[in-house]
Amino acid sequence: MYTRIEANGMPRKVRKTEKQWRQALTPEQYGVLREGRTEQPFSGTYNEFWERGFYVCAACRTPLFRSEAKYDHGTGWPSFSAPIDERHLIFKDDYSLLVKRVEVRCAACGSHLGHVFDDGPAPTFLHYCINSAALDFVAAEPAAEKAGGAVPPVRRPAAQDGPDAKAKGPRKPTA
Questions:
Q1: Range of 68's domain?
Q2: Which of 172, 62, 74 is nearest to 127 (CA)?
Q3: 3-7, 35-39, 108-112: which has the minimum mean pLDDT?
Q4: For position 2, what pLDDT does the model report?
Q5: What is the pLDDT of residue 41?
Q6: pLDDT at 51 over 60
Q7: DSSP 73-134
Q8: What is the mean pLDDT of residues 81-96?
Q9: How many domains does the chain fold into?
Q10: Among 25, 128, 158, 166, which is disulfide-ready with 30 (CB 3.0 to 4.6 Å)?
Q11: Is the dihedral of CA 122, 123, 126, 131 positive or negative?
């Protein structure tokens, strides 16, 4: 089940107590999503993951990014050039490192996802630097793609798809 998107394109708000969030999320997800922590660079499941599909908020399943917008920025976190819909995100000024950054949060549940910078590729020139722990992946199914890109169920990559399986896991498309 996905977060319901209202007629105006905004995701319906998801409200849970912190106790409910702790029960629903892994400790790593809770640290990133609810406490605003950052996972170590090059450690996340989706940094070197290149299957076709969608990325959703790991806390509430709001659709966030398409795999077509993912690219290798070299920073060690999954990088995207554009969201599925900006209305699914909240942008907040962040001065925690004594310089201004723009934090990205899920508009439905308020969870911390990462940051956005202005050093991305054309045409947006945006770089959404997102923690893997904040995401779940939804593989594209051929029938769904033909029907307009309906979002199929979430699938976490198998262990062999992770960062330790460089020769076997999904690879970045070469063009």
A1: 18-148
A2: 74
A3: 3-7
A4: 59
A5: 96
A6: yes
A7: -SSSS-EES--S-GGGEEEEEE-TTSS-EEEEEETTT--EEEEEES---TTT--EEEE-GGG
A8: 95
A9: 1
A10: 25
A11: negative
